[in-house]
């Protein structure tokens, strides 16, 4: 099994906004939906999925276990609750959303719980999110690299996370990029704009194509139908070596997501 290269993110979308986003995305041809327990939108997404008429086996649904649910007695019940909200018997991918603050729950415990969830058929694949190199090492030691489908990390033209990506690549861990457009900041970048003009594309298409060209999965979100449709077209855009070199030069370690009390010691 593998991770689809392109999907819909739902961070910060709740209630009617997330129902509309998911519904429109599915109508346009999206089949991958990324959510998380802490987003508070699993039930609303479940409503959209129930109404869409698309067979479950055609969808790829990801959710993420919140830090409070990482313990031995909590992870599986919390995942079962997520499934109930989403209106499905299983998810395709379950991630540890953030490492347990202060290592209150060891990585090995959470990973082994995810393996149990997989064995029980609650999730098809398992993985991690916001994991540094030492945390990935712990996850591999716990369950083997072959059981870690992806590490979902913040990654954009301004935060290319080369150390983590390089290590993950060497050890066979796939990368999923979130915040790929840098909260929209990268859409206004002059270098991106020039590349977009050259290819008769949008800045968003250029950035998403860049990430997918590097082998990462992307999960951009939008509430606007035209943006959802436009983002889809990034899948057919191919950048050249000159474009990639120009984007490589935008790296400035501009991390946008580093919540106090949650964020690990970044590599």
UniProtKB/TrEMBL annotation:
Coiled coil: none annotated. One of its GO terms (molecular function) is methylglyoxal reductase (NADPH) (acetol producing) activity. Residues 7-249 form the NADP-dependent oxidoreductase domain. The active site is at 39 (proton donor). It catalyses: hydroxyacetone + NADP(+) = methylglyoxal + NADPH + H(+). Signal peptide: none annotated. The record marks 64 as: Lowers pKa of active site Tyr. One of its GO terms (biological process) is methylglyoxal catabolic process. SUPFAM superfamilies: NAD(P)-linked oxidoreductase. Keywords: NADP, Oxidoreductase. InterPro entries: AKR, Aldo/ket_reductase_CS, NAD(P)_OxRdtase_dom_sf, NADP_OxRdtase_dom. The keyword Protein biosynthesis does not apply. Substrate binds at residue 97. NCBIfam families: PRK11172.1 (NF008377). This is 2,5-diketo-D-gluconate reductase B. It comes from Kosakonia oryzendophytica.
């Amino acid at each position: 099994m593998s991770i689809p290269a392109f999907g819909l993110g739902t961070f910060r979308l709740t209630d009617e906004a997330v129902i509309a986003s998911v519904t429109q995305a599915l109508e346009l041809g999206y089949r991958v939906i990324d959510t998380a327990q802490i987003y508070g939108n699993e039930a609303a997404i479940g409503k959209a999925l129930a109404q869409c008429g698309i067979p479950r086996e055609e969808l790829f649904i990801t959710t993420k276990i919140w830090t409070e649910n990482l313990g031995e007695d909590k992870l599986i019940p919390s995942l079962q609750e997520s499934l109930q909200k989403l209106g499905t018997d299983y998810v395709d991918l379950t991630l540890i959303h953030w490492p347990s603050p202060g290592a209150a729950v060891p990585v090995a415990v959470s990973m082994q719980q995810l393996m149990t969830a997989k064995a029980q058929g609650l999730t098809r694949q398992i993985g991690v999110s916001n994991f540094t190199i030492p945390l990935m090492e712990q996850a591999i030691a716990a369950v083997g690299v072959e059981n870690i489908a992806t590490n979902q990390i913040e990654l954009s033209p301004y935060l290319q996370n080369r150390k983590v990506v390089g290590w993950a690549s060497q050890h066979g861990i796939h990368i999923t990029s979130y915040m790929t457009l840098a909260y929209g900041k990268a859409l206004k970048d002059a270098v991106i704009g020039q590349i977009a003009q050259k290819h008769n594309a949008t800045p968003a298409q250029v950035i998403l194509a860049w990430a997918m060209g590097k082998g990462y999965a992307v999960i951009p979100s939008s509430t606007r139908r035209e943006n959802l449709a436009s983002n889809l077209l990034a899948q057919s855009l191919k950048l050249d070596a000159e474009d990639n070199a120009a984007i490589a030069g935008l790296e400035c370690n501009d991390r946008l997501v580093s919540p106090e009390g949650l964020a690990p010691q970044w590599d």
